[in-house]
Amino acid sequence: MSLSPANLATRSAASELKPLSIADAGAAPVIAAIDVGSNSLHMVVVRINPHIPSFTIISREKATVRLGEFCSQTGALTPVAMERARTALERFCRIAESFQVQDIVAVATSAVREAPNGLEFLKRIERELGLRVELISGQEEARRIYLGVLSAMEFHNRLHAVVDIGGGSTELILGNGQEPEFLRSIKVGAVRLTQAFLHHDPPTAGELQALRQHIRGMLEAPIEQMRRMVESSPQAGSLALVGTSGTVECLAQLDARRRLGDPPTRLHGYRFSLEALRGYIKELRSLTVAERQKLPGLGERRGEIILAGAVILEEVMTLLGVEQIQFCERALREGLIVDWMISQGLIEDRLRYHSSVRRRSVLKLAEKYQVEIPYAERVAEFALSLFDQTRGILHGWGSRERALLWAAAMLHNCGHFISHAAHHKHSYYLIRHGELLGFNEEEVEVIANLARYHRKSPPKKKHENFQRLTNERDRQVVLELSPLLRIACALDRRRLQAIQAVHCRFQLLGEGPRRMELILDPKHPNDDCALELWSLNEKKKVFEQQFKLQVIPKLSTQIQPSADPFEVAV
Fold first, then answer.
1. SS (H, E, C) 514-547
2. Residue-wise pLDDT tens digits, 488-512
3. Domains 5-136+334-346 and 153-329 share a fold
4. What are the extents of the domains in the chain?
């Protein structure tokens, strides 16, 4: 049975876990998803029904910890905020354990992303709680928010803008229910701007003016880009705006209480106007924090930051030229869950395109930097063939690392866009800052390092880029897989597809030296492939040093394609 976004509306789970077996499916697995935000930490616990497929939210948890209240001198996460977050995450883990969850999928966003001690904090959480938290980019955060929204709303193929106002950043998205046409994360958030601009209680006119000018300056360019995309779209009708997360929810609740007396049982789908929003801002700016906190629906912590969040929303609506916003109760944490379901092949049809988001994102970046795609695909094919043939013999990596090697192979030459000289170093920079979707920050760092080491020096501890691999496992991935990429590059030295296939034969036991024969099948029987063999003899040195064996390249005596090109010959 296929699943459309609307079918998910009463249900909710998240990243890359083991595939569901038939036994797992029968057991209706329970998954938890955690969003470590700049203002609040959120968790949903869901039960997945893989047969429909759908998910049911069985628990929601929230803790306001203000990770985004950085140290004013260093910009680092403060010890007090980190301890609050640790306590909340420990409680979340206990709750998840009580539901006997199969796994917990957790991501960290703006505050941890920007803080110089953010990775150190995540290491501490993993060490003390056994909880691994992924650090994701702003664009990846926006993509998963979009998934969360699509799990609760039907766009009917009409363009919608989505705004998610967080504590440290605001995500802007444009899409019609299919491929997102625009994803952007801007460093304007309710906690960040309250801390930076609103120092008096209530704020002065000058503070509010400076706040508004800063917000507009940050939002003008991306929203102008969105407007041009909308204007050039063949779809008729005005742009619809959807808002998610705490700021929009609190403003929707305030509006519902004023207009209806009692807010609806469920705010999802509730609409309020720009005119009403401007009235609330006028009221909020005249109140002290203590007075705001007494307003129904705001509470102690939201009352401190609601004014900055409301001004962000007003500027978004004004610049977009929309008069109304609709609240959606689904956001990042539900998007994590949908992303997990897609990765398991549980959701098809309208959301099917997300399953290949990694591949499309890599190809898009390759095209942007004018990579020769056919050549890159041949290098990637050789790299994966070597990976498969050496797996279990020279390394023990799995599907995650295989995907990272493929991405690095496709992008290893993108640095030529800047310069041929030291292009491997340029490739590192372009990949690292290329906003690849579908990968977390650690995975992007691995891809960039693999590409960096496809030539010249092997990885060294003194290299700054290698030091950025804070996980020992990821450093080992780069040490063991970058030599495979070097060999793969040598196999198409002339870029003529001279080598048709490569087969590995190992001699690892006995009294003689450890050795691996690389049997090359030439495309043309009379081609001596001299340049490829020369290049292999140059490139094999790092491979030999890493795996402590001798590599012997040779041409096959006859061309006989293997029935399985990835079959290991031992």
1. CEEEEEEEECCCCCCCHHHHHHHHHHHHHHHHHH
2. 999 988 878 889 899 999 988 777 7
3. yes
4. 5-136+334-346, 153-329, 358-555
CA 408 to chain centre: 17
Closest C-alpha to 439, from 479, 481, 411: 411
Cα(567)–Cα(388) distance, integer angstroms: 8
User: Burial, 86: exposed, middle or buried (Cβ in 10 Å; 0-12, 13-18, 19+)?
Assistant: middle
**The pairing of beta strand 170-175 with beta strand 182-186:** antiparallel
In terms of pLDDT, which residue wins out, 125 or 151? 125
Domain 153-329 adopts which CATH fold?
Answer: Nucleotidyltransferase; domain 5 (3.30.420)
SS3 helix, strand, coil % of the chain, rounded to 5? 50, 15, 35
Give kind and range of the element (H or E) at residue 328: strand 324-328
CB 187 within 8 A of CB 127: no
Q: pTM here?
A: 0.75
CATH assignment of 5-136+334-346, among 3.90.79.10, 3.40.50.880, 3.30.1330.200, 3.30.420.40: 3.30.420.40
Q: Of 14-18, 211-215, 321-325, which gets the smallest average pLDDT?
A: 14-18
Determine phi and psi for 382, rounding to 5 degrees: -65, -40
Distance CA 524, CA 202 (A): 80
- Identify the CA nearest to 410 among candidates 437, 443, 356, 447: 447
**Letter for the amino acid at 85?**
A
Strand spans (E) along 126-181: 133-135, 160-165, 170-175
Quick check: 409 pLDDT over 80?
yes
Give yes or no for a contact between 403 and 358, defined as CB atoms under 8 angstroms apart.
Answer: yes
Token pair 């691999």 is at which residue?
A: 469
358-555, superfamily in CATH? Hypothetical protein af1432 (1.10.3210.10)
